[in-house]
């Protein structure tokens, strides 16, 4: 009798969790996440100067399965418009911030992009749908390796990752059309400016506890200009 009861409980459990696992359930959640991002873009337009994200950016956000990039126990929160802890005191960024930074990069399909701070690999996956090639560096080996395996498993073939200090960029693949930094240094790393192509763009949070999200553009003559977009809070860029 006890065993039958247990079996019934297990069956009920299976039925109850099944919809949460299904692709259709996540597709609905993802559409809602894109709606939330779109609404936040409208509400923050006076600060960011961007009221609406490009449809290609929103399509990429609607396509990438964020639930595959968060820890299993956080899967039910995967499509909430907020950051989540991914272990090692690091976070996967808030979806709105991922969309905003992607928008600010203004990617072309032929671009080669460098990302500093692979983390979960989610931002890299979003970038990979809009660029030709993504190179992403992570300083914490366990995170970088997990992200690499996950990106491969999910078929993001144009993302290459490595473990290392992104402050130094990735000279072997430089120069880049675009650079995105998803951890905050207190100054713009000079190597990253060097590794940016003329007319290239870098999106980077710079500061201490809170930071300014900057868009730096390298002019054809090598000089740079930067524009402050919005205050943000990223984990600090650490060094080896
Ligand atoms: N882009 C990530 C979010 C990353 S959080 C995502 O989509 O999930 C920032 C990441 O930057 C952390 O994983 C942190 O370990 C990493 N990081 C911090 N300093 C770094 C450095 N000097 N070089 C490379 N990665 C760094």
The end-to-end span amounts to: 59 Å
pLDDT averaged residue by residue: 93
CATH topology description: Rossmann fold
Helix/strand-derived category reads alpha/beta
Query: What's the structural domain tally?
Result: 1
Rg of Cα set: 19 Å
N-to-C order of helices and strands: HHHHEEHEHEHEEHEEE
Shape: globular
Number of strands: 9
Residues in helices, as a percent range: 25-40%
Number of helices: 8
CATH class categorisation: Alpha Beta
Major sheet size, sense and barrel closure: 7 strands, mixed
Uncertain residue segments: 4-19
Cofactors and ligands? S-adenosyl-L-homocysteine
CATH architectural type: 3-Layer(aba) Sandwich
What percent of residues are in strands?
15-25%
Lateral arrangement of strands in the main beta sheet: 5-4-3-6-7-8-9
* CATH homologous superfamily assignment: Vaccinia Virus protein VP39
Your description of this structure?
By secondary structure, this protein is α/β, with parallel strands linked by helices. It has a single domain (about 25-230), classed as Vaccinia Virus protein VP39 (Rossmann fold), CATH 3.40.50. It is built from eight helices and nine strands. A seven-stranded mixed sheet has the order 5-4-3-6-7-8-9. Helix 2 packs across helix 5 (about 95-105). The chain is globular and about 50 Å long. Residues about 5-20 have low confidence and may be disordered. Bound molecules: S-adenosyl-L-homocysteine (SAH).
């Amino acid at each position: 009798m006890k065993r039958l009861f247990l079996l019934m409980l297990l069956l009920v459990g299976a039925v109850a969790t099944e919809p949460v696992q299904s692709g259709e359930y996540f597709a609905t959640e993802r559409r809602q996440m894109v709606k939330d991002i779109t609404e936040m873009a409208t509400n923050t337009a006076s600060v960011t100067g961007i009221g609406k994200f490009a449809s290609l950016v929103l399509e990429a956000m609607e396509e990438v399965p964020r639930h595959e990039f968060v820890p299993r126990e956080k899967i039910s929160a995967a499509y909430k418009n907020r950051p989540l802890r991914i272990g090692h005191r690091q976070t996967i960024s808030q979806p709105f911030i991922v969309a905003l930074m992607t928008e600010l990069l203004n990617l072309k399909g032929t671009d080669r992009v460098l990302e500093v701070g692979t983390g979960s690999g989610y931002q890299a996956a979003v970038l990979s749908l809009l660029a030709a090639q993504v190179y992403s560096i992570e300083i914490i080996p366990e995170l970088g390796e997990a992200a690499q395996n996950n990106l491969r498993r999910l078929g993001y073939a144009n993302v290459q990752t490595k473990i290392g200090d992104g402050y130094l960029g990735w000279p072997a693949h430089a120069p880049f059309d675009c650079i995105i930094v998803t951890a905050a240094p207190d100054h713009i790393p000079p190597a990253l400016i060097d590794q940016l192509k003329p007319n290239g763009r870098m999106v980077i949070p710079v500061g201490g506890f809170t930071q300014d999200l900057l868009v730096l553009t390298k002019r054809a003559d090598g000089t740079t200009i930067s524009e402050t977009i919005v205050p943000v809070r990223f984990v600090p860029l650490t060094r080896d």
